[in-house]
Amino acid sequence: MKILKNGDIVCLFSEKGKKWFVKIENRHFSTHEGIVDLQQMVGRQSGDFIMTSTNNKIYFFTPSIEELILHYVKRSTQIIYPKDAGYLILKLGIKEGMQVLEVGTGSGAMTLVLAHFVGDSGRVYTYEERQEFVKKAENLVREFNLEQRVCFHTKNIGCGIEEKGFDAALIDLKEPERYLRDTVESLSCGATFGIVVPTTNQVSNVIRECEILDVLGLDICEIFFRRYRVNAERLRPQDVMVGHTAYLITGRKIKSG
Amino acid sequence: MKILKNGDIVCLFSEKGKKWFVKIENRHFSTHEGIVDLQQMVGRQSGDFIMTSTNNKIYFFTPSIEELILHYVKRSTQIIYPKDAGYLILKLGIKEGMQVLEVGTGSGAMTLVLAHFVGDSGRVYTYEERQEFVKKAENLVREFNLEQRVCFHTKNIGCGIEEKGFDAALIDLKEPERYLRDTVESLSCGATFGIVVPTTNQVSNVIRECEILDVLGLDICEIFFRRYRVNAERLRPQDVMVGHTAYLITGRKIKSG
Amino acid sequence: MKILKNGDIVCLFSEKGKKWFVKIENRHFSTHEGIVDLQQMVGRQSGDFIMTSTNNKIYFFTPSIEELILHYVKRSTQIIYPKDAGYLILKLGIKEGMQVLEVGTGSGAMTLVLAHFVGDSGRVYTYEERQEFVKKAENLVREFNLEQRVCFHTKNIGCGIEEKGFDAALIDLKEPERYLRDTVESLSCGATFGIVVPTTNQVSNVIRECEILDVLGLDICEIFFRRYRVNAERLRPQDVMVGHTAYLITGRKIKSG
Amino acid sequence: MKILKNGDIVCLFSEKGKKWFVKIENRHFSTHEGIVDLQQMVGRQSGDFIMTSTNNKIYFFTPSIEELILHYVKRSTQIIYPKDAGYLILKLGIKEGMQVLEVGTGSGAMTLVLAHFVGDSGRVYTYEERQEFVKKAENLVREFNLEQRVCFHTKNIGCGIEEKGFDAALIDLKEPERYLRDTVESLSCGATFGIVVPTTNQVSNVIRECEILDVLGLDICEIFFRRYRVNAERLRPQDVMVGHTAYLITGRKIKSG
C-alpha cells in the first residue's frame, strides 16, 4: 500500500471524469470543481479521496508510468507514446539489471520509462547535445527518484560513446542513420536496438545503413491506438484518434565476419 | 554478455530471413537450409553463428520476451500479443517488487511477461481451474527459470482468492464480469486492473459491472499493429495484418464509501 | 469544360493551401488572404484563378462530390463520410437508372450522393419524419439541380413505404432494426441493402433482426481513412485522424420460403 | 427485377455461407454441397434459389460490382480493392457522361468500375502496353456488356495520348511520375486525377513531379478496411485483415501561368 508524502506526484480524478497531475506541496490547487488543499493527501493512500471547497469529491492516485508520459512530461519535444514505449520495452527485452544506451534524451519521457524497467541494479546511459533538454530530463528523472539509475551525457554520440557492451539501445533523434554504426558497435553481441522515426524517408535511410552494418533481423512496424467511449449501451470508438506517432525499427547486433 | 548453455532457448536466424526457436539439447536440428548440431552453440555468445551441414550460416540469439510470446509459447489457447502485453505492462505500472494477480493463466504467455517484469523481488499469483493449462504454464515458466516468481493456483477465483493487497491485477478469461468484484476487492486501494476480452458484448458487460463496484477511470482501447517490408527503395506495409486480438479495459480501485 | 455561372458552388483554393466553399453570387467574399469579387468567376472555367484585393492568387474549382459532403453540407446532423459513402455505392451496386430507397434523410448528404449516381433515369425515394431535416435536404438537393432525381417523403417508414421493388436501400437512422422488415419487403428480390450505425450494440441488434428476415450474405465492416502530409522528403501520416464514423452492414434480400 | 439468362454472371450462395461466381452456361457446376445444373437459373430472378444434387439450397444473385472486383476478376495483376475504388470514384467525381482517361489498364478491374459509373453516355479511354493485359481486360469488359463504353489503346502513353480534354484521369502503373505530365496536359482545366501506388518511395516521387506541373490540391491517403464476424452475441472483428493495398494520391489540374 502506497502512503503519499510531500513531493509525490499524484493524479487527481474528479467524479465527472476530469484529470489533473500535480506534485504534493504546501499549497492549494484550483479546479473547475473547487479548490483542493494538497496537504490533505499527505499520509493517506492512493485511491482515497478529498473534498474540494465546493464539496466535490476528488480521488487521488499514484500515476502509472503510462499516465506520466502522456500527461505529466512537459511537451518540450516530441514525446514517445505509451503504445510505442510498451512495445519497445518488450521488443528490446528490457529488464532489471540491464545496461541500456539511449541516443537522444529528448523530453526524457523514454529515459524515465527505461529507468523504470531496468530497476535498481540496471542503468540507462543517455546522450543529448542540447543542454536545455538534458536539464529538463534530469529534473524529470529526479522528480521520480530515479536519478541513481540514469547517467546523463551532454554530448553528441558522434563525439564518442563512453561505455561499451550495452544490453540494448534506443535511438530517438533526427538522423538516426548517422549514429547507427557507433550505436551498434557499442552493443553486446546479440543485443537488440530500437529506432524511433516519424517519416518514411528516415525508415528508408535506416534500412540502407543497416545493410552495411553487422545487423540482422530488421523489423519495422507502426502501432495504432484507438480509445472507446465508456458506455455499455452505446459502445463505440472515440471520434478522433492519433493518426501517427512514429515508425519503430528494431534489429539485432551480430558477430562481425 | 550472454554465454549459452544446455537448456537455453535460442532463436536461430538464417541469412535468408527464416527463424526457428529451439532449446539447446544434445541433438541435431533439421532445417531447409541444412542440419544444425545444437551443441555447437554451447559456450558461445548470443549473436554468433554456426554453419549447417550444407554450409549455410545460421545466427543464434537469446530471444526477447516479445519473440517468445509470439513464436515459442504453444498456442494451446489464445495468446496475448506483444502489442497488447507491452501496453498493459505500462498501463498497469508493473515493476520490480510488485505483487500481481492474474485471473486466468491460459497459455501462460502473460504469466511469463508479468514474471519477467516483477523481477526477483516481485511475485505473480495466477489462478486457473483447468489443470492441463496450469501444467503447461508451469512448464513454460520453469523453462525460463522464473518459477520462484510465480505462484500457481489450480482453482476458480470464485472459490476464493487466497491473497490480498495486490498492486495490480489482470483478468483474461471468458466472463470477466463474474470475477471482477473479487478481483477488485483483492487489490490495494489505488491499484490498477486490466481486462482482456475479444468481443464487444464482453466490453459492455464489464462496463456495467464496473458501475456498481469501487472503480474509477475506466479506459477502453484497442491496438493495431502493422509490419512493413524491409526494403529501402520499395518501402510499404506488409499485405496482411492481424485484424483483431482483444479490447483492453483498465481501471483503478478506489476507497469504498 | 465547365464554364461557371451564378448559383454554382465553387471551391476556392489559395496557393497557401487554404480552402473555402462558396456559391457564386453578386457579392464579395473575405478571406485572410484578401477580398474576392465572386462575379469575376462567372464565364470562366474551373481550374482558373482570380486575384484577391491583396494580390494573392486564388484558384477556383467545381467541387467533387467528396468535397461537397465533407465541406459544404451543413453539419446539422451526422454526415456520412466519403470513405463510407464510396464503399456503399460500390457494395450496393448503385448505377444509372436505379430506384433507391433511403430510410432517414438526415443531412441529405447521402441523398445527394445517391442522386448523383442514379443519373437522370434513376430515382431516390427518401423518408424522414423530422420536417426541418427534409427542408434542409430539399434545399441542398435543389442547389445541385438534382431535385428531379429525388422524391422526399416527410414521414416515418413505419407508417408505410409508398413504393415497391427498389433496386437498393440504405438505412441511416437510430434504430434501424425497427425499420428493417419494411425495408427488406420493399426491395426487389436479390437487391442489396446497407445500414449505417455508430455503435456495436446497434450492430448486434441488426444481426438479430436479420436472422428472422429473408436476408442472406450479411457483411459487416468498418473503414479507416488516414491522410498523409504532402512532403516528398518528410513523408508521414497526419498527426490526427478520424477514429470512428460508423459500422457498415450490408445484406441481400432473398426469395421467401 | 432482374431475370437471368445464359451468359449472365451469378454469385451462388449456399446457406452455409459459401460463395461461388460462375457464368450461366449449359453445364453442371460441382460444389462441396452437391452438383448444380446452371440452366435451372435461366428465366428466374436474382435472389431465388435452386437445390443441389444432394438437396442443399443454393441462392443465386446478380453480383454487385464490389463482388466482381474481389472475386471474379482474374488476379493476373494487382487488382484495385473496393475500399479504394469507391473512394476514388467519389474523389474524382466520376458520373454519367464523363470522358475518363485510365493510364495502365492492368487487370481491367478499375476499367470495369469506371465504365460502370460513366454510364451509356460516358467513355473510358484506357492505355496499356502489354498486349496480354489488354486482351484480358477487353474480355472482362465484354463479359459485362460494357464494351461500347471503353476504348482500349495498346500503347504506352509516353507515345502520345490520342484524346484531349478528359474530365478525370486515373494512373495505375509502376512509375506514375513518368506519365504525370502527359496525363495532366490531357485533362480539362479543373479536372481531378488520381494515382494508385503501393510504396512510399513512389508517393515521394509523385509529390516531387507535381511540384513542377500545373497541379493544385494534392491529397494523399490510405484506407483500411476491417470486417466483423456476423455474431450478435459475440461481435468482434475478423482475426485477419488486409494490411495494405495502396496509397491514393489525388490532385487538380489548374490553368497554366
Shape of chain A: globular
Mean pLDDT of chain A: 93
CATH homology group of the largest domain in chain A: Vaccinia Virus protein VP39
- Per CATH, which architecture of the largest domain in chain A? 3-Layer(aba) Sandwich
Question: What is the percentage of strand-forming residues of chain A?
Answer: 25-35%
Radius of gyration of chain A: 21 Å
Q: Low-confidence runs of chain A (pLDDT<50, min 5 residues)? A: none
Helix/strand order of chain A: EEEEEEHHEHEHEEHEHEEE
From the N-terminal CA to the C-terminal CA of chain A, the straight-line distance is 53 Å
Distinct helical segment count of chain A: 6
Largest interface: A-B, 72 and 72 residues
Q: What is the CATH top level name of the largest domain in chain A?
A: Alpha Beta
- Oligomeric nature of the chains: homotetramer
Question: In the CATH scheme, what's the topology name of the largest domain in chain A?
Answer: Rossmann fold
User: Structural class per helix/strand content of chain A?
Assistant: alpha/beta
Biggest sheet record of chain A: 7 strands, mixed
Tell me the total number of β-strands of chain A: 14
Helix content of chain A: 10-25%
Strand order of the largest sheet of chain A: 9-8-7-10-11-14-12
Give the tally of structural domains of chain A.
Answer: 2
Could you characterize the architecture of this molecule?
Four copies of one chain form a homotetramer. In chain A, 23% of the residues lie in helices and 32% in strands. In chain A, the strands form three sheets. Chain A has a seven-stranded mixed sheet with strand order 9-8-7-10-11-14-12, with helices on both faces. In chain A, strands 2-1-6-5 form a four-stranded antiparallel sheet, covered by helices on one side. Chain A has two domains: 55 residues, Vcp-like ATPase, Chain A, domain 2 (Roll), CATH 3.10.330.20; 188 residues, Vaccinia Virus protein VP39 (Rossmann fold, 3-Layer(aba) Sandwich). The termini of chain A are far apart. Chain A is of the alpha/beta class and 257 residues long. Chain A is globular. Chain A has six helices and 14 strands. The mean pLDDT of chain A is 93. Chains in contact: A-B, A-C, A-D, B-C, B-D, C-D. Chains C and D meet through helix 1, helix 2, helix 3, strand 11 and helix 6 of C and helix 1, helix 2, helix 3, strand 11 and helix 6 of D. Strand 12 of chain C pairs antiparallel with strand 12 of chain D.
